[in-house]
């Protein structure tokens, strides 16, 4: 049920190189606070660079969504006054989950927010909700399953919070960890695309007669629950805060052999790795998020003085995120204090102070770290074009902007306007590129070079060919092409001035649209797609 085999620090040399290199790896972008807010934080980010978080306005948290590709900030409304109230997760489709307070109830409610911004209260989709307590939604995976906490009436007089999962297939409560202790609470903080939950649970590590209750980190899927190891003793506390789609887990764990100090931790293949802290920042360190590349983000030190760090590629050595950022002016006291999440695209979000050089308030503000090499989340697609058609290529990327685009054919940069083939290119240096009058001389492999303020990336190749039997230019060979072929067949001679330009129906290029072309047309028609 766990991820890849234990990989200690074969990456240390690579990480040392990363730390020492002069070239920046990220650009820090401060996310504007909502109007009237005094502080804020970014809590989650998806692989498309869409961020969610919360801002504090007059003692009440308000949710926000920020799209790094467009720079659009959206106010998602009031959440509530408590620390539990926030937007805690977003998936790649843009669905958001969080915990809110509503006017008609004092307890917390779990909320699902659609990409349109519409809210759905999913609290009462559980069958175990109790009036004794509330419900929290903490994370959402790409399939729409949600991890969180729900209150359960475990006895006539006691309600207990349990880690849980909402999913399109139903509601799931994590089994008791240490089942010989009745009403032991648990919490689920993260979920991956396999539906595996991680969190913490109160476990009895003693006996039935003499119980010893300890909060232990756990992993749980449909096959059951697995306590995650800590450093030296079953009496040590811990919590698992994030799980990647590969099954790697991060969080914190106590080490009784180190005077009970709590360390950031990474669980790989069932074994625990102690993540080191920056020198002088040992107390209060935490690992908050992990992605599919086993890049972990968190904080070295406590909330008041700590610094946002990353542990890359499964290494236990921390790297200050500020040291990896592109040089930029900041206010006195600038500090990236916490990195709270990292996406598979490499986007990092959290909270910091003084990111804007004009900000002297010392209040925390949300930030996103954009990779210097732009991240492409929609590559151009291979396609066919009818003869003299107008195909278009599209790319979508997020990175340290402003982003510049240069489309290429067979590795050669395209120029705007007329081409040697006779076609016309529009948007050679834009996100969307179109070719008008596409012909055989334009066939080839197309890609786009995207350059940001501190790095460059290249899309995958997209091959495009002329689909000559697609006479109607609808992308397939179908009934709509037949009358066009018949019309050309009746004209016969490609030199006839009434023949459509290009004589596209002359598939064998013999100068005539005749029976030989009809045979080829039928073959393409039966295949539906081009030959």
Could you walk me through the main structural features you see in this protein, from its secondary elements to its overall organization?
The protein has 531 residues and is mainly beta. Among the domains are: 377-466, Immunoglobulins (Immunoglobulin-like); 479-527, no CATH class. Strand 19 (249-255) and strand 20 form a beta hairpin. The two termini are 46 Å apart.
Highlighted features:
single chain; Immunoglobulin-like; disordered N terminus; mainly beta; 6-stranded mixed β-sheet; 531 residues; 4-stranded antiparallel β-sheet
Question: What is the secondary structure topology, with strand pairs?
Answer:
Elements: H1 12-20, E1 26-30, E2 39-45, E3 50-57, E4 60-67, E5 72-80, E6 86-90, E7 96-101, E8 108-113, E9 119-121, E10 135-140, E11 146-155, E12 158-167, E13 170-173, E14 186-191, E15 197-204, E16 213-221, E17 224-227, E18 238-243, E19 249-255, E20 261-268, E21 271-274, E22 286-290, E23 296-300, E24 307-311, E25 319-320, E26 335-342, E27 348-353, E28 364-371, E29 375-378, E30 383-385, E31 392-394, E32 396-398, E33 404-409, E34 412-413, E35 417-418, E36 424-426, E37 432-436, E38 444-451, E39 456-458, E40 462-466, H2 482-491, H3 515-527
Parallel strand pairs: 30-40
Antiparallel strand pairs: 1-28, 2-3, 3-4, 4-5, 6-7, 7-8, 8-9, 10-11, 11-12, 12-13, 14-15, 15-16, 16-17, 18-19, 19-20, 20-21, 22-23, 23-24, 24-25, 26-27, 27-28, 29-32, 31-37, 33-34, 33-38, 35-36, 36-37, 38-39, 38-40
